[in-house]
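re the bet — no i am not wrong, look at it urself. input seq straight from the record:
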Amino acid sequence: MEQAVLPKEVQVLDQAIMILWDDGHRSTYPHRYLRLRCPCASCVDEMTGRARLDPDTVPQDVSALDHMQVGNYALQFLWSDAHYTGIYPYRYLISHCACIACGESRAGANAQVSEPEE
């Protein structure tokens, strides 16, 4: 069984949310980036997985005002646009890390998956 990576520290900063994970990785999520990826049923259709959230309805300056831990598996944010129903599981947050290293890693994994076999 895979060992879960847990947040060691969560900071809501002026420009972003910073999470230091217990494996030493630091993820920084610009506020609007994370708000637009809210996985709640209001923002994502539960049956199809398609986005229901219209990005034009989310203010450009949206920000997290506060956060709280949900059990031992997720974080919940109170957003300045009064949205608060999204629960962001740790695995989801890690998979959406906006850092360069994670972006390159995802791009490499996608390239390997799409390479045709000879």
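see?? DSSP finds three helices and six strands in the chain. told u. also The chain has one domain: 7-113. so pay up
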